[in-house]
User: Fold this.
Amino acid sequence: MLNEQDAVITNIVEMSKTLKLDLNENDFNELLPSHATELSNDDLLDLEAQSHAEDLLEEEREIEPLKEFDAKKWQNLLG
Assistant:
């Protein structure tokens, strides 16, 4: 009988076949143990730096560019 983890892996592999992805059980068996280990302080600092960099990029995308006005446009606006 399959344990819960094996059943989940089998289910994911079947879904990946449906999506025509080239994945097999070994791909997940290698991945899952790495998630069971605790992150080191360096790993956590790297993740925090990456998150901060992504936040800055998102903020840059949200800033609207300033409109440029030359003297003629100002003159037209002011009448």
